[in-house]
Design brief:
Length: 103
């Protein structure tokens, strides 16, 4: 907190590092209450100087390839159903964190 207050331009990077530490505590897919569902927390990073579209396939993140999933953006709280690949517009030096659930 003090670091981001002293260096506000570092806020996206600091947020991304904190979220990465959270993800490292749960590197495997999280099993939900329903045995047939798989939930995965996904963080997409953009290290470039410009806004970029970042994509991850379900196979890359441990979900069944080719099956639709429901994606919840943890910052905007927008839920999108039926996605077969994750693509997000990520700001420069920023990140997007979502939870994808596949049945």
């Amino acid at each position: 907190m003090l670091f981001t207050a002293a260096y506000p331009d570092m806020l996206p990077l600091t947020t991304a590092v904190l979220l990465l530490l959270l993800l490292l505590r749960h590197p495997r897919p999280l099993k939900s209450a329903t045995a047939s569902e798989t939930k995965v927390a996904i963080m997409l990073f953009n290290p470039s100087e410009a806004t970029a579209n970042v994509t991850a396939t379900w196979a890359q993140v441990g979900l069944p390839a080719g099956k639709p999933a429901t994606v919840l953006d943890l910052w905007s709280k927008v839920r999108t159903e039926g996605m077969r690949v994750l693509t997000a517009e990520v700001p420069p030096h920023g990140g997007v964190m979502v939870v994808a659930t596949s049945a």
